[in-house]
Amino acid sequence: MATTPADNGHTSSADLGPATALTCRECGHSRELGPYYACEQCFGPLEISYDFGGVTRESIEAGPRNIWRYRGLLPVPSNVAETPNTEPGLTRLVRADQLAESLGLQRLWVKDDSGNPTHSFKDRVVAVALAAARELGFKVLACPSTGNLANAVAAAAARAGIRSAVFVPSDLEAQKIITTAVYGGLFVTVDGNYDDVNRLASEIAGEEEDWAFVNVNVRPYYAEGSKTLGYEIAEQLGWRLPDQIVIPVASGSQLTKIDKAFQELIKLGLVEDRPYRVFGAQAAGCDPVAAAFKAGHDVVRPVKPSTIAKSLAIGNPADGPYVLDVVRRTGGAVEDVTDEQVVEGIRLLAATEGIFGETAGGVTVATLRKLVETGALDPSAETVIINSGDGLKTLDAISSQVAPSANIPPSLDAFRAAGLA
Ligand SMILES: *Cc1c(COP(=O)(O)O)cnc(C)c1O
Ligand SMILES: [Zn+2]
What we know:
binds pyridoxal-5'-phosphate; Rossmann fold; 2 domains; binds zinc ion; 4-stranded parallel beta sheet; single chain; alpha/beta
């Protein structure tokens, strides 16, 4: 039980499991748990601190077959699994021998997060944000989104029986518009890019005190949901860490939290402490973190996004500097690939492994290829890549590139004549 002071009518006593405090990533100043996201001293981003106790491999393995098996490592109430939620997680880790062979790698795995309830990794972060937000007394689940987050928020709120309010750039993929609107809830398209929508959301969050913008005012809780990707990869590999991992970067939250998960597992003695390298993947049309990495900078200069990888099109990434920290600390790199290479990446993953990833998956596969070619990544070391979303949500990216082999009348003669066998 963590105790929080009454704040703006929010609950005064919240059960947030093993979470103990909110600590500033910049200056280290700590404060009590609550609906806070910026440091009182320096405005730096707040991150959850914990006191873990009694989490073992066995206790995790005995848990539900979704992210709540890791609830002892997350800022959520202990009974979280019993409240209606979308139950994301425990997506498959696929051994990808054919993709490995085509890229000259020896041992490769794809963590296929398109298998989540709304077909992207965002169901993880939203489930954790929703659980914490309810505990903190928020009434509405909201977000600015590049698409997948809108899907996940609208669905999770519907399942939980609460209101949702989502805001997206109006040029979003048609599939993501439909797969958000279908859940009902308030759904606003905004004439602007994601960074404009994000700024608007911050302004609304300042006025609507009951609204939990999952990636704005409850971001410290939201971000922790990405740790479950790291926990699952380690558990699915038989409680060990891979040598190398390639992760798509939008805000950079997913990458930094997978690293945090690996560090926690090491500290808890749940996996062996051995070195691993973390690589980031971006599209060339929105590559602020890759550009900073290559230039040797610590700060990330915002860009105006222009890429088919819209789920990664965040020009001013909140966690960009922390991505640079993780990648440099572990001996990884951040690379970027052209839209043409993204499409090739989507097709290569589909043709070699039968996995249809969205544009973010194409970015990751194409980046993997480039990292092998430049020698940044060791082809003989065990590697995991993340496919973070489903190709059915970004059909426009490849609709002009793929087609049936032939169209024939329904006769064997016609089939033979076409020379198709
Ligand atoms: C949001 C998103 C990401 C990256 O998320 P960040 O944590 O913001 O870096 C990656 N892939 C897909 C499909 C996404 O929707
Ligand atoms: Zn601070």
